[in-house]
Amino acid sequence: LLEQAVAALELRPSGASYSGSFARDWMQHARRETIVKHSPADDSPLAAISLSSLDDLQQSIDASVEAFDRLRSMPAPARGGIVREIGNQLRLHKESLALLVTLEAGKITSEARGEVQEMIDMADYAVGLSRQLCGLTIASERPDHRLLEQWHPLGPIGVITAFNFPVAVWAWNAMLALVCGDPVVWKPSPITPLCSIAVQQIVAKVLAQHDLAGASTLALGGADLGMKLASDERLPLISATGSTEMGRSVAATVAMRLGRSLLELGGNNGLVVAPSATLDLARRAILFAAVGTAGQRCTSLRRLIVHRSIEAELVSSLVEAYRSIRIGNPWEEGVLVGPLVNQAAVDSYLQAIEDARREGGEVLVGGSHLHRPGNYVEPTIIRMPAQTSVMLRETFAPILYVVGYEELEEAIEIHNGVPQGLASSIFTSDLREAERFLSSRGSDCGIANVNIGTSGAEIGGAFGGEKETGGGREAGSDSWKAYMRRQTCTINYGTTLPLAQGVEFDL
Ligand code: NAD
After folding, report:
1. 366-373 long-range contacts, CB within 8 A, separation 24+
2. Which intervals hold domain Aldehyde dehydrogenase (predicted)?
3. Residue closest by Cα to atom 17 of ligand 1
4. What separation in Å is there between the alpha carbon of 481 and the centre of ligand 1?
């Protein structure tokens, strides 16, 4: 399968390693450390990957600084034209890219295809946006004056991404950044290097045709490289997606140099099921949100807050559904749950279950590590006596905690009683309850849904969350503004010089 993807993407191996094949003018190599990337599905070695040195990173940033001048001088719709070409190439390579996502991140085929589709959608969205980077005209308080604001390219952007959306999160950032006139220096997760090499390869070819090779560069490595990227003063914005722990470190580093950071961090998402909910709809939504991507989405459902009058019925139907889920090789048809990404993820799954039991939790289904090659675990439901401390942290695995409630106020209080604030949902047929959940005294999350699950957001809306999730917004709506600098302009077309606020200053 890997050979298929490599051939289609023209990622030719050089000897035993893939290094060198993806090297472009933007990255001529110094001495490198090599890692072997294993498949989470069966532990087999996929490829040897040369990591970038700090010198490589410097070269990437140098190239992006150089490209910035050319990129910002182009009209935005012309930049949109280039992004259209990138989108078309991604379309052409959709199957091969999805295969790499499956092999490296362990996503089932349908979800991997969906992730690549998200990149294509972002490209389409950005093409349209390139003609709509609009500023405001504001009424001036002075006669014969015009007040307006306009948006300019910001500069080269550092983009740090997580393993679980190895290509889509890059696209959320890069597609917007490129139409906004900003080159991108990408530091992907070292857990998914092949996906990022393939995407970079595709994008670099398009950009080279427009004499813009440095507008997208790639630096492969871990936290050390990420920290170096975050500290570089030539990058006015660092967009970082990953754990809250990583976000704290990046935010502090960027703040020290008074740069901007856009943070997309951990979630701990809750779903309230009210007595009037359509239970079959709720059951299906819960299943996808809690079990999809083996619980490794930032928006995965982790906390089910269910009215006590329907708790037994809903939970027993979920337990039954969990028992019939097929776990296995992510590229096999009919499999819904692939592997966790690595052994550390299995360990944290087991630790959370042990902690939950200690805190009074009862495991209703699942709870075990499947001992076969690969990092497979059983999707798990645990009934909790209350929202105890294990429920306050994000465990990146398919564990769903269930707690009961009597009054909606109590449900909202439980829902908001965690440090994270990414995605939330309510299932109800009661308009008052739905509106209460969406009101200013309702869900405190960046995403609040009614009668759909917590995960699987569309790109048209702004994506992101509050509290420890970091406050950033990416993808649709007006998220593009983070990638530009706003300029307020006052133009006097009269013959006098009136001052604002009525100030007199005449000799
Ligand atoms: P991670 O924090 O381990 O790594 C994310 C990225 O940050 C990687 O590229 C890593 O190399 C880099 N990194 C780690 N420490 C760093 C540091 N100190 N300085 C600079 N860079 C550093 O996260 P992960 O395990 O790859 O991904 C899972 C996490 O990401 C979960 O918490 C999940 O909720 C979160 N996530 C959030 C969103 C969102 O949009 N809110 C989307 C996807 C994933």
Report:
1. 366/322, 366/398, 366/399, 370/327, 373/42, 373/43, 373/44
2. 26-488
3. 223
4. 23
